[in-house]
Structure formats: structure tokens, C-alpha cells
Write a structure and sequence with these properties.
By secondary structure, the chain is α/β, with parallel strands linked by helices. The chain contains five helices and seven strands. The mean pLDDT is 96.
Amino acid sequence: MNATPAKGDIMVFSRAPVPGQTKTRLIPALGADGAARLHAWLIDRTLARAAALAEARVTLWCTPSDDDPVLRACAARYGARLAVQQGEDLGRRMQRAFDTALRSAPWAMVLGTDCPQLQTDDLRQAAAMLAHGADAVAGPAVDGGYYLLGLRRSCAALFSNMPWGTAEVWALTRERLETLGWSWSTLERYRDLDRPEDLDYFPDLRCHA
């Protein structure tokens, strides 16, 4: 009898949707409450897409803690585990999450909640790439970052001394993957929702603010 393949781990990174503390760059367009409501909707949507992938378990990595009622309700709704991000910057927090997940999962992928275009089929494609031997898979973002990074092994070089939040992130990550000699693939390039001007590409989302 063949053993059931071990599931991968989809790690959704999110800040608690507290007005004035989340999606702050959207506040000029939506107000503090509207930006927080939109963020809460994006969290729910991202978890729904992730939970629909049978090949993976889902972990909601929270900051600053896991006691926010919206985060806890979303996790319960989609059967996601809760964990608290730990580290002095985004890179260290992601590295620690990968280190934790890859102790028991054959692969893991991290994604934020800022990519409205992301679909379950994108996650399924990434999972297939990893399951068939790719060391890494990335979803490049229009702004120069990435909306998804999947790995079969963790390496601090991919996360340390990275200018997070700049247009250089994906280019530098790609260079580091090449230096490591890892095999890697990419998904379709998508647009993140970070700034007021990004709302022009997603006008329907204003109704969730």
C-alpha cells in the first residue's frame, strides 16, 4: 500500500487588521477604518484560496500576536493553524517560518494577503513545481517584489540584508538563487495592492472598504 504523500505548508503572513496600524499607505484613499476592513477581506480571501488546495495545510502567521479576533475567526473558518511571526525584520520572520514548516513538510510557501489576483490554481501550480523537484518557486510582483515564495529547503541568504519594500527584492532574490545553484521556476507576474494608485486596477475592491 502506498503511503499518503506528506502535505506541504502554505504560510499566510498577515498583520492584524487594526485601524491605523494596517494598510497605512491606503489610508489617504480609504480612511483608517476602510483600509482595515479591506485588509480583513483580503485575509479572508487569501485563506479561502489557500484552504482549497488539498495538497497543503495552512498556517496563518500573525503579527503582532495571534489574539486578534478577526485573525482567529478567519483561521477557524478555514481550518488554518495560528502562529506568531518572530524576528526583527521581515526576512528573519520568513526564514524562521520556513525553518519551522520544513521540519515536517516536504515544501512550504509563504504569501502575503496583498495580491487580489492570486487564485488557488496559482498555488496548485507552485505546489506541483515544488513536488516535482524545483528547489524554489516565486510569484514576481509588478512592483519588483514577490507575492509568493515557495521552498523545499531554507537558506538565510535568501532573506538577510534584503531591502524589503523596494523594487529590488525579486531581482536580488533571483541573483541569490542563481548563486546557490538552486533550480527555480516562476508563476505569472501579478500586481499587489499597496498604494492608492493600485486601487485603480482593482476598483471593485472599494466596496469591501
